[in-house]
Amino acid sequence: MEHAISRLELADAKAIYLDVWEDNLAAQRFYARFGFSPIGKREFRVASGKVTGSDLIMRRVRRVRKLLRSTNAVS
C-alpha cells in the first residue's frame, strides 16, 4: 500500500479513491491506517445489473508538507 501511495503522489495525485465492500470491516480498518476516510457509498451491481450489496467509497487526500522558511534577517 505504501508503494502504491508513493507512486500516485509522485504522479502528483491530489487524492486517491477506492471502493471497499461495506461489510468488509477488516479492509476498511486497513485502509484507514493509511489515511483513507469514508466519503460515501454506492450500490454494487454485477454484470446482469442486479444489486448485490453496497460499496463504501473511501478517499485519501494528499498530505502537503510545509517548508519552514528561516526568518532570521541581518539588520
TrEMBL record:
Pfam families for the chain: Acetyltransf_1
GO terms of molecular function: acyltransferase activity, transferring groups other than amino-acyl groups
Residue ranges of every copy of the N-acetyltransferase domain listed in the record: 1-63
Highest taxon of the lineage: Bacteria
Protein name: N-acetyltransferase domain-containing protein
Taxonomy of the source species: Bacteria, Pseudomonadati, Pseudomonadota, Alphaproteobacteria, Hyphomicrobiales
